Protein 1
Amino acid sequence: MTSGATKRLFSAERKIKEKIMGASGVSAGAADPSGITNQDLMTAIKALQSELLMQKVQVKELNKAEKKTELKEAQHDLEDKLDEVNLLRTEVRALSRSIHDTKREIKALGMNEEDKFSVVTNELDEIVGATERATETILTAAEKIDDLAQQLRQHSPDQFVTQLTDEILENTIGMFEACNFQDLCGQRTTKVVNTLKFIEERVERMMEIWGEENFDTVDHPDEVKALEAGRAPEGEELHGPAEHGGGISQADIDALFD
């Protein structure tokens, strides 16, 4: 290549030249390539560096803004979750207290020295049995009175005796009708007994689910403690009538005086 040949420019030099010529109002084709000085080239390079630096700063600021937004959103999500955790913790604490109170009540029902459910149901059964036996005795006696009145009426022609027997028969009919109470009371008492037995079964089932050993550390409710404190000492309690067939009979008492 001779010294008189036109110098070929690199693409970077052409772009710099176009930028400089564009700034001065001279077209790129009208300028002499050899007219670009080192100073012009350095100025253009510094301008490019400044532009690249500005773009880099803008990208960094944009990234910072995006990260800040993401951080805020994450912080809000975390605060919401913490609120939910605190609420759940409060609910669990309340549930724990409720379970403990329930255990106390169950212990008061089913883990005393004497089973209150069994005592009550047995007493009600005894009431039903006693009223049934008493009613049968009354009905038997009324039937006997009715039969005797009929015989007296047939064998006595006296008008006064006939009038008395009619009154006796009328009253025996009233006794028969009144004895219907036993059937109604027995049905209602049986419903109460069945309800108590159902509750007793459910209480025993709950104690099995939780485990009876878990009730050893549970205190009785205050009202139960107060009731127990007011009870008579052991051996001094008053007991009601003995169960049917379980007490001392009249024959046993009479035998003591023979």
Protein 2
Amino acid sequence: MRATPLVLAAAVALALVACAEPAPTPPAVTAPDDVEATPAPVSASAAAVAHQAVHDPEVVHFGGFGPAAFGADEEQVRIAWGQPLESLPPGEGSTCTYLMPDPVPPGGYEVAFMMEDGGFRRYDVASPRVVAPGDVVIGDDAGKVLAAFPGRVEEMPHKYVEGGRYLVVSPEQPGEARLVFEVDPDGTITEWRMGLLPQVLYVEGCS
């Protein structure tokens, strides 16, 4: 049974944990191939379920976000989120844009959805209220990621932060989606994103 937008929003409200942090500006871009299999539609608003104390695999998963699979059109992403989203204008000569919560919360965006060539490519998370697979949240130690995904994590040096790094998690089954955690020099997770290759690896997002 498909979840209604209202129920999905209720779920993401529950899937975000207690506190929120300021979030960075959404990243920038370039578009994909294979898409992971998508779990059954969630029974509550993806926005609400994304705000629970534990990870909900029906909302945050390697196949997409809630019932919106990677590759889906903008309307499907809006339905999955279940709350207003504003489409940012793409840069000159670009087809990449972000769908952002409207209005953006005082502390900054919590989840932003990247669209390119009319398809859903990735989502960026900048709030500890949204729980990643492995029950990992922003503010956790990088060791939690390594423990949660043994043999599935590739480490890469951060492009801009000296001593920082990216932890790139592959799905259990072969596919084009990846879960990427950004880690500061102290070993703390500062943000994360989920999406298709190559877009999920774009450091500047749509820039």
